[in-house]
What we know:
heterodimer; A: 281 residues; mainly alpha; MetI-like fold; 86% helix; B: 396 residues; alpha/beta; Rossmann fold; CBS-domain; 2 domains; six-stranded mixed beta sheet; five-stranded mixed beta sheet; 15 helices; 20 strands; Glycine betaine/proline transport system permease protein (chain A); MetI-like_sf (chain A); transport (chain A); MetI-like (chain A)
Amino acid sequence: MNWLTDNKIPLGAWMENFVDWLVSAASVFFDLVSLTLETMIVNMVDAIEYLHPLAVIAIILVGVWFLHRSISLIIFVTLSLLLIINMGYWIETIQTLVLVISATAMSVLIGVPIGIAAAHRPWLYTILRPVLDLMQTIPTFVYLIPTLILFGLGYVPGLISTIIFAIAAPIRLTYLGVSKVPNELIEAGLAFGCTKSKLLYKVELPAAMPNIMAGVTQCIMLSLSMVVVAALVGADGLGKPVVRALNTVNISQGFEAGVAIVLVAIMLDRICKSPSSKNEG
Amino acid sequence: MAVVTIENVDIVFGDNKAKTLPLMDKGHSRDEILGITGDVVGVQNANIEVNEGEICVLMGLSGSGKSTLLRAVNGLNKIARGRCLVRDGDKMVDMAKCDETKLRHMRTHRVSMVFQSFALMPWLTVLENVAFGLEMQGMPKAERLEKAREQLKMVSLDKWADKKPDELSGGMRQRVGLARAFVMDTDVLLMDEPFSALDPLIRSQLQDELIELQKRLNKTIIFVSHDLDEALKIGSKIAIMESARIIQEDAPEQIVLNPATEYVERFVAHTNPLNVLRGQSLMTPLADLAVKDGKIIISDDISMTLENGKLTSVQGSQGEIPTARWTPETIIANVSDNTVFIVPANIAMRDAVEIRYHSNHLLVLEEAGQCIGILNDHNFYHALLGKHFGREEAAA
């Protein structure tokens, strides 16, 4: 037993060396990525903050109406956003929304092509599966540390951690959707003269779309759940008041920030659900 | 003129073709080969020639390789050995060896397909589904939707153009499938059990519609079916498959009259032969009838007289029985009672039975103005029972 503890395998040290090596070898690259993403997010937040909150709410309501044409959803979204303004979390909500939407957009942009590639190549999915499991099960705090070192304080380590945590959903569900496209539809596509790319865009992706959209919705929810954690590395948003409330044992601040997060979550979930999937239950 | 020629085609599923093909040549069975190499023999040494305007039916139970062979014609299944030639203008293209571009050309302009489970795209409207293949041909949107709309009219579904496939019944969906294939205006149509998933009434209605369409459009059709009645109804040629091999290829009537093996015989036993058989196959030939005093004796009290091969009179026990001539244009319900009818030798047995029902007498068969035989009650019972159709027994 002593022998086991005395001869420690330096797993942690290896990882540290690897991160150190990354920092020294590619710090320019990481700084550039960090600067680009930070500028992008800060500018988006600034642009929205520049508008009057009621104007932003109006824009959101128009969008919701076009997507769902449901009076009850409009009423719910209006009341929720007004309550958030009333509690004084408008700016934090905008910051959170921008972070969530950027993380989701990047996860989908990277995840969907990987999911398609995996569906077409079984060996790739065999390799991917344990990696995805690992990314989802390692406590999120753990990879905040290297991302913090690589990208510095601010939105970006939060964004990158969120993507690592949330990207598994679009990859898995795209894989599922594309690999279970009925064989007869593939045969019909080929029999009528599809090329490989036509088959993908005209048959496989439309057939897999319900699954891919479910992946996007899941991705949004997972991103939102990372928001509080991202506050630990300096990402602004609704996580900040939660962390502050925790540190000062402030029940009322913690509750109000918590309510704001829940409202954002319910709004995003209802807005993302496609009208057709609602009918199917 | 041959439009599709399948020559010595072997299709093997699996990765050990190098080992499997020699085993097939040595005559090992499908099961043995599966045990030795793990490969599945889909089709073994198939040869068929399908001419322009023909409907060739591939018939067999599930797993006999009929759908596998069909899919070789448009290159969905790869051929291990042999050639599968399809006419392209005045050349024949080998679907097994042509490149990607040629294959696409053949699929968009020469060969289209109808599927058993319809295989319509659920996210497209009926109209867009019909236009799907035209889009692959590269036709501009307005033009292809216009053409698709015309085709939908032909299958009387134009009112459903903007519905999604899942709002249609099974029969309607397969009409959409047919429209999608016909709108391509290809010479060759592949149909993989297109009507098997439908109710019997809808099935027979769509079979009739297909026969009507075929009369107008004169396509070359390869049709897969597990139902011999369907095969006999629509096929101009039938190839029967059993465990990866074609065991008999013949005209529908010949399949019923001369089944090559017991397997085919079992199929035939369950069909209604009246639909395919012709009078001349089941008649009692003139030569087999006894002659007495210049009269041909048909039964104890009926005899007939011929002059230069033509029927002149029929004598019954109570004197002469009137004769009349029946042609396919005559409505059978209107034929007169107590008359001997002279009918063409290739009369369908179904018509012959109906004439006998109305006229109450035997039928005399005529070919090129010459009397060649008779159909009496014995022949009719024989056809109805359909036990065995060896020519000798029919004549007995």
